[in-house]
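Exercise 7 asks you to align residues with tokens for two separate proteins.
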Amino acid sequence: MNRIYDFEELTDSVELLNRKPPRFIIWFLIFLFGSLAISLFWICTGEINIVSNGTAIVKNKSETSIIRSQNDGVMGDIVITNGDFVKKGDLLFRFKSNKSEEIEVKAKAEGIVQFSDTIQDGDILKIGQEILSIVPKGSAKYAQLTLLAKDIKDIKLGDKVNYSFNSDTTNEELGTVTYIAAQPIFDKDLKEYVYRLEATMDFKEAQELPIGISGKVSIITGSKPIWKSLLKF
């Protein structure tokens, strides 16, 4: 026959019920609920930036002198190399036209020589082919930005720009949008319509970046509450 016990007789059960939970469990629960409260507060009050991403290429504000082939012919003697500093009137190279005329091409301005492509003596050149450019030394630089047409909608003059040129600097590479093209152009490489923009480069290392170097860019166009972003998921 089964015996019915009084609750007072179950001493182990009474001790178990009266025993306080271990202190580490109490602290764990406090930490858990505290973290949850902070997270909820952050989600309800915090904001995230809305950005449009694209590419940037460093340009020179001063006018660059571009040297093109004026006739079909053959490259003769090249007397300068990429990166050389030349003065106005310095001899750059000799060119033999298809009419067997030997032409001396001289610098129209002083600056740093940048060849458009690898060119050697004896290379065949076509009329209008870009051979090299002379970039003024020490002039201010800016960034030419390229963004897809779908990413241009909310961008306006004065928006903040973040650059990433993979340079050695640990500082933020920042700038400001100063120009937005009115119409897009078709990019043959991307096979999409893109917009050209211009922006300042407001960081110390900007002047050390070589002309023509490219990098990534993000433009901050606004912000929105974190909770709205989470609802999309």
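Second protein for Exercise 7:
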Amino acid sequence: MEQYRVGRTRKDRRGFNLVMAFAIAAYAMMSVSGVVHADEQKQELNWVQGSGQEVGLGTIAKLKLQPGLVFLDKDDTVANELSYGGVPSNKEIGSVFPTDENETWSVFFDYDDIGHIADDEKNDIDADALLQSYKEGTKAANKETTEENHLFVDGWDVPPTYDDNLHSLKWSLLAHDNNNETLINYNVRILTREGYISAILVSDPTHLAEDRKSFENIVLSNFSVNSGEGYADFDESTDKLAEIGLAGLIIGGGGLVVAKKVGLIAMLVILVKKFGIVVVVAIAGLFKYLRRGRKKDEATIMPNNDPNVPIDSDPRP
């Protein structure tokens, strides 16, 4: 293993972020046996190159994919995760990456149909109480792990805030590991008719501010929920209600008690997916492997401009 250092190149930092991302599942799912090896899962992926066309995020939302970005649909997002040892959640609906190798960010989308989440807490979110719950949950989790895997929550980078226009929550936590390395991520939860969409920006502490601008300006601003699936489309006579509110969503979808019990399900530090608590693990060369796979698949990268071809169609035999 190798340690993440401030002096690494942007490419190496991105490799670290991706390694950290796939390591998330290890801690929360230690009972899962077997490891999916990259060589066993290596396959061609359909990287869709952005030209301003719409791409589908499952059947729940869509994205106008801008030039300079590439997109993987839900099936290829899962395949990509498996290729580097990740554990898919089966809630993936797509992922976005910049084509510029000097860019260090990526965005992953999931959809969870847990029911309609009431936003009546939007003006009463207690950021201090939520932060304390994060800290207590992480402290409890540290007792169950080796010292080298301990995590420490430092505070909010961006405290939880609610956007009435998008019906979304956003927040970002600051934390550090046992080597005093800074961990950070940026989360957006978009409420829908019967659930929520997770949009998680993966970056590094040095570039998070600029990467957040890219995320908001060229990804989130071009995102929209499909007609009939929006928050305002909720029908209380037919649609199910979620058992959690906004605070429960921030703390991980299971409420404060669950977060403390399992050691902070929603820690989401450097989170690519919402698999569980982060394990501080780094393996050299993962990013280079992913880049090799992407270059090998370059022949399959194509803009999807044909309106007669379903967005989610798979051209592979």
